[in-house]
Specification:
Layout (H helix, E strand, L loop, with lengths): L1 E3 L5 E5 L24 E2 L10 E4 L4 E4 L3 E8 L4 E3 L4 E7 L2 E2 L2 E3 L11 E3 L2 E13 L1 E5 L2 E5 L1 E6 L2 E2 L9 E2 L2 E2 L3 E3 L2 E4 L5 E5 L4 E5 L2 E5 L13 E4 L4 E5 L2 E5 L6 E4 L3 E5 L2 E5 L34 E6 L2 E5 L2 E4 L3 E9 L2 E5 L2 E4 L5 E14 L2 E4 L2 E13 L3 H10 L6 H6 L6 E4 L2 E5 L3 E5 L4 E4 L4 E4 L3 E6 L5 E4 L3 E6 L7 E2 L7 E2 L4 E2 L21 E6 L2 E3 L1 E4 L14 E6 L2 E4 L1 E8 L3 E2 L10 E5 L7 E5 L4 E4 L3 E8 L4 E3 L6 E5 L2 E3 L6 E10 L1
Parallel strand pairs: 4-6, 5-7, 15-21, 19-22, 20-23, 21-24, 22-25, 23-26, 24-27, 25-28, 26-29, 27-30, 28-31, 29-32, 30-33, 31-34, 32-35, 33-36, 34-36, 35-37, 36-38, 37-39, 38-40, 38-41, 39-42, 40-43, 41-44, 42-45, 43-46, 44-50, 46-52, 50-53, 51-54, 52-55, 53-58, 54-59, 58-60, 59-61
Antiparallel strand pairs: 1-2, 2-5, 3-18, 6-12, 8-9, 8-12, 10-11, 13-14, 15-16, 17-20, 18-19, 47-48, 49-56, 55-57, 60-64, 62-63, 62-64
Length: about 650
């Protein structure tokens, strides 16, 4: 049976003929934007006159946006739209009822349907042009409240009935509210070189997303070269698996200021593998091999040369991560005078991969585990001085006015990390300066057999306080690998196991421990007082295909009190699986002679090392005014290749070096 309403579009019931039991009022949703002028986004709508009922076994096809006062869909009933279109239901201005298919459906579980049930209120069933987006081999059917391209808002791809309050124009929206308790509905999607400013939006999404490597289900997405998305005064609060707040992708520029973003975990679908997957098409939980749990990160930065900046804002996730860069290359992540936090006791402040550059000026970190997980990047933690902020404003084209710049107070960065400041899984640098205060529950700098480099300049008051007394730990990776699987949509599952090596490492015939190598992990400390230990426990000798790795440390006008040594590291458990995920990176050290794990120490001008316990080195260089000392009432002795040797300022020593305290 086919009926065309006097007030609106055509709809068709299929599956079995029947008489219409109720009259249906249908009307096109109101215009979202008035040409060239702002207006209220929630105009008065024609009152719906009746209900829509879809019985079990019936399919109702809608060919246009339809309104009603109530909607009933029995189990086994369905509402569809023609190919090339999407369907969204709002009730009293809230997107609702959308259900994702199972992940195992072969399409990534992305098809959405309106759930069976009875809905009452102001019912709007929006039929919009499809916005199907591909990530890898999967296609995700995006639906969004507001779709923006270079020409402004595209009503044909938008769901106007989800926009409540405020004003909307082709260049921006102010004071709007977007709400969803369905699944994988997006808020504002800006693409194609468009520029859009959201002022004081309130966005609250409760329900799962599906893929944060493209932003399916995110509150806001800015994507594409030349695209600029600005959020000013935003309040975004989401609950749901990968229901991300902000996505920046594909060369876009996203600027968030004076805003609050928070994302809390949802309920993982039953069909998801219990140990998770590293296949990013399907990955909806943090890989446990990072020592973390959680299923939503607040933000993600993707694509090539994309830029995301957070100014005078609060960004937090329950677990997993607050600021993420994942799946991108040569991106730039910036935070100025912002708070970065995890509220659930686990998680990271930022994730860095793909040669990203990260700037943190005047920020406060209150994170469960790591301030930074480092997969190849350059990261800087410092003060939000007027000059530093102005430089970023110019180089990143942040668009901050002179008044906004003047209103930003100069602040130092404070880092409070539950476990580690930095975890390196790939080579890259970290710079800490200004008045930055680093405080960690455990080791400050954790490096997993890669060329991680940290430079700390304490001349303006920067400090490092390691809760377990270990400032730098260089060690073998203890990250289990993903395992390839067949017969599943995803290509791998994270069901690998780490097994602690046993026995003594074999000496490599090719690895040089007595001079710096290009693959060394490095620490450079200037004008700072440090209390804590430095360890290199890399086994080498072919273990994990690694012949060896050195730890090179340099101190200038600094004091260090502690042990600096080659060591043997040991976990408290011999194997680590998903059940022991919190044991990742948790090791104790026993100092031991250098094998393939050279330790090279340079005490530059004005520096003193107070040795608090037996330390094994492969190289020691002393400036003419440098000092190696022992704690009060004790003496320190150096042996070189077994021979007791006097410690003299201005001298260098290589070989098998042992410093003992008595």
């Amino acid at each position: 049976m086919t009926l065309t309403s006097r007030t609106g579009p055509e709809f068709t019931y299929r599956a079995r003929p029947r008489a219409l039991l109720v009259a249906v009022a249908a009307a096109m949703a109101p215009t979202l934007v008035a040409p060239a002028s702002a207006h209220a986004a929630t105009k008065a709508r024609k009152k719906a006159a009746a209900c829509i009922e879809v019985s079990s076994g019936e399919t109702l096809e809608l060919t246009g946006t339809t309104t009603a006062s109530c909607l009933t869909i029995e189990e086994g009933g369905a509402i569809t739209v023609p190919d090339g279109y999407s369907l969204s239901l709002t009730v009293n201005g809230v997107e609702t009822g959308s259900e994702l298919a199972e992940l195992t459906d072969g399409n990534g579980g992305v098809a959405t349907a309106i759930a069976a049930g009875t809905y009452t209120g102001t019912i709007v069933l929006t039929v919009a042009e499809a916005n199907d987006l591909t990530y890898s081999t999967l296609t995700f059917p995006f639906r969004q409240a507001i779709y923006v391209d270079a020409d402004g808002v595209d009503e044909s791809r938008s769901v106007p009935s989800d926009v409540l309050g405020g004003t909307v124009t082709d260049s921006g929206a102010s004071g709007i509210t977007l709400t969803s308790n369905g699944e994988a509905f997006n808020g504002v999607y800006v693409t194609g070189g468009g520029s859009y400013t959201l002022t004081d939006p309130t966005i609250a999404f409760d329900g799962n997303g599906r893929c944060d490597f493209i932003g399916y289900g995110a509150s806001v997405v800015g994507t594409g070269s030349g695209t600029t998305l600005v959020l000013d005064g935003a309040n975004i609060s989401n609950v749901g698996v990968v229901r991300t707040a902000v996505i920046a992708d594909a060369g876009a520029k996203v600027i968030v200021k004076n805003s609050t973003l928070h994302c809390a975990d949802g309920v993982v679908p039953d069909e998801y593998p219990s140990a998770g997957t590293g296949d990013t098409r399907y990955m909806i939980t943090v890989p446990w091999m990072l020592g973390l749990s959680g299923n939503v990160r607040a933000t993600n930065l993707l694509g090539a040369s994309t830029k995301a900046s957070y100014i005078n804002s609060s960004i937090s996730s329950e677990k997993w991560g607050a600021l993420s860069v994942d799946g991108g290359s040569y991106c730039t992540l910036t935070a100025i005078n912002s708070t970065i936090a995890n509220t659930g006791g686990q998680g990271y402040g930022s994730y860095a991969i793909g040669n990203v550059t990260e700037h943190f000026l005047g920020c406060t970190f209150d994170v469960g585990d790591y301030a930074l997980i480092h997969w190849g990047a350059s990261a800087h933690y410092g003060d939000s001085t007027a000059d530093a902020v102005a430089d970023l404003n110019d180089s990143l084209e942040l668009g901050l006015t002179s008044a906004e710049l003047s209103a930003l107070p100069e602040k130092s960065t404070t880092i409070d990390a539950g476990r580690f400041m930095v975890l390196w899984y790939a080579a890259g640098s970290v710079t800490i300066d200004g008045g930055t205060k680093v405080s960690t529950g455990e080791t400050a700098f954790m490096c997993k057999a890669v060329a991680g480099t940290v430079t700390v300049d304490g001349s303006d008051g920067a400090t490092v306080d390691a809760g377990n007394g270990v400032i730098f730990q260089l060690m073998d990776t203890d990250r289990p690998s993903s395992v390839t699987v067949s017969g599943q949509p995803w290509s791998s599952e994270t069901i690998g196991t780490y097994t602690e090596p046993t026995g003594s490492p074999s000496k490599s015939s090719s690895w040089v421990t007595t001079s710096p190598q290009s693959t060394d992990a490095k620490g450079t400390f200037t004008d700072i007082d440090l209390t804590g230990d430095f360890y290199n426990s890399v086994r080498g000798g072919g273990n994990a295909s690694l012949q060896g790795q050195n730890l090179s440390l340099s101190f200038t006008r600094s004091t260090v009190e502690g042990v600096i040594s080659a060591s043997t590291a040991k976990h408290s458990v011999s194997t680590i699986t998903k059940d022991e995920y919190r044991e990742i990176s948790e090791v104790s050290n026993t100092t031991s002679p250098v094998v393939n794990n050279g330790v090279l120490v340079t005490l530059g001008t004005g520096s003193t090392w107070t040795v608090t316990g037996t330390s094994y080195l492969s190289g020691l260089t002393l400036a003419s005014d440098a000092t190696v000392a022992a704690p009060s009432g004790k003496t320190v002795t150096l042996k070189v290749d077994g021979t007791t040797t006097e410690l003299e300022a201005g001298s260098s020593y290589t070989g098998v070096l042992t410093l003992t305290v008595a």
